[in-house]
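dude i think i finally got it to work??
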Amino acid sequence: MVSVAIVALVPTASAETVVGTITVGSVPFGVGVNDVTNKVYVPNFGTAGSGHTVSVIDGSTNTVEATVGVGSGPRRIGVNEITNRVYAANSGSNNVSVIDGTTNTVVATVPVGTSPRHVGVNEVTNMAYVANSGSNTVSVIDGSTNTVVATVPVGSDPRGAGVNARTNRVYVPNFAGGSGNTVSVIDGSTNTVVATLVVGTGSLGSLDAGVNAETNTVYVTNFGPAPGTGNTVSVIDGSTNTVEPTTIRVGNGPASAVVDDEANIVYVANSGSNNVSVIDGSTNAVVASVGVGISPRGLGVNKITKIAYVANSGLSSPPVPSNTVSVIEYEPNTVVSITSPADGATLFTDFGLALSATPGSGKIADGGTIVPRALLSPQGSLMTFVQVAYSNTGSVADGTLTLSDGGTVVGMLSLTAFRGAASTTFGVTLGVGAHTLSAALSLSNLAGSSTASASVAIGVSSTISSLASLAFAVSGPAAATYVGKLTFQVVSGGIVTAEGLLGDSASSFTSLDLPVSVSSEQNLLLQEPIRITVTGMGTITVTVSITANGQSHSALITFNGGG
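look at this
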C-alpha cells in the first residue's frame, strides 16, 4: 500500500443570511428542531384569549403544516429525535404537553412544578428535564412512561435546562434571587446537584445554557439589564465544571443559546437588540451579528440542513406584535476541494519495478515503520487497483471524488448526502511509463468550520512470469537495526505451488532474497508490501533489485532516519 500525503483545505466561515420569515402563532417564545424529520416546533406563548399552541413547521418548505393546542403559556420546547416526541413546557398550567411528532397530536399531559420554563432532553436515557421557575426545582420525566420520576431542588428561578447526553449532565441556569447568577449541574445518573457554578456577574440573571457535546463546553446567556452591564455569555468547561474567566460580549438581552456542535458554532438570540450573535466555538469570539425580528427569545438549528430558526416574540417595550420565525441559512452552498498530491505516488510500469514507500515525505522517526513495495509488470500495462480514502467531518454534503493520472481523469465517483469516512477502489489500466496519481474531493453545502480530506493508496494485484531473483536490501548507520517481512505465493495453473515469508517481523536483517525461481509457466503474487521497522538515527536506504524475463532492474528510496 502506498499512501500519499493528505492535504485538507478548510473553507472560510460562510456568512449567515436570513432567507425567509414564517408567520406562526401569537408571541412565539421557543424553538425545537428534529434534525431527522426536518420538523421545527415553535411554542406560541400567546396573550389573553389567544395563543397557547405549538406551530409545526416543515423544514423542507419552511411552511406551517400543523398547529397543535397545548397547555397555557407554552414557553420552551424539547425534542427527542429518537422517539419523535416533543415536550412543551406550559408555564401557565404547570404541566408539560407531550406531542407525537408523527401525528402532531398531544398524547400525554404531565403535571410538573410551578411555572415550568424550559425542557431539556437526554435522547440516550429518554429523560426530559423541566426547569420550574416558580418552585425552584427540576422535574425529571421518564419518556417511556410520561411520568415524573424525580424532583431535583436547584437555585432560585431556574429558567433553562441544557443537556449533555454523552456525559449525562444537565446544566440549569438560575435567574434571580440569592441564588441568582448561578448554574446548577445535575448528574443524570443520580438526579442530584453535583456542582453550583457562579456565572454572569453584573447581569440580572442567567437564562439559558447551550451545550456542545463534542467539546464538552457549555454556553450560558447572562441577561441585561442594560447595555454595558451583563449581556454576556459565560463559558463552562464541562470536564472540570469550571467557568472561563473571560465572558463573551454579545447583544442586549441574550435570551437563548443553541449550539451546532458538529460545526462548533454557537448562536445567541438577543431579545433587546433584535439580532443573533454568532460565536466561533474554536475561539469563543463573536464572528457575526444577524438582524432578525422584534425581541427574539428562542432559537434552534438543524445540524443537517444547516438552517437556524429564530422565534421573534414581539415582547418589546412597548410590545410590537411579531408572531414570526426568522430563517437563517448559515451554510450557503460553500464548496471545498481537497487534493491529495503525488508525493510518493509515482508508479512505473515498464518491464520491472518501481519502489514506493510510506511515508511519502521521505522521513521516518526512530522506531518507525516504512512500507516499500515493488510494483511488478512484465506485460507493459498493469491493472492497478487504486484505493482512495476520503472523509467529511462536517455536515452532510454532495460532491465528486476524482482520481487523476498526471492531470488526466481516470476515475470518478459521485457522492450524495455524504458524511463520515469511506473509501473506494478504482481499477485502472496503466501503460508503460511513469504515472503520477492524485485524488481530489469536491463537496458542496459544507459548513464553514468543517474539514474534509482525501488520500491515495495504491494496492497492486498483479503477476509476473520468468522471475529469476527479487531482493530487498537495507543499509544505514551501524547503530540501526532492521526487521521486516514479505509474504509471497508461486502459482502454476491456478494452484499454489510454493508460498512463504521472507524475513521475520521480529528478526533483524540486511537483505531479503526470494528463495525460489519462477518459470514462464508460473506466476508470483506478492501478498503484501515488505514492512521494515527501523531503529536508529541517520540516513537509511532501501534498495530492491529484480531480474525478470532476462532483464535486471533496481530502485532505491532514501529515508532520513532522524525524521
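Residues 363 and 563 are 5 Å apart (CA to CA).
im so relieved honestly
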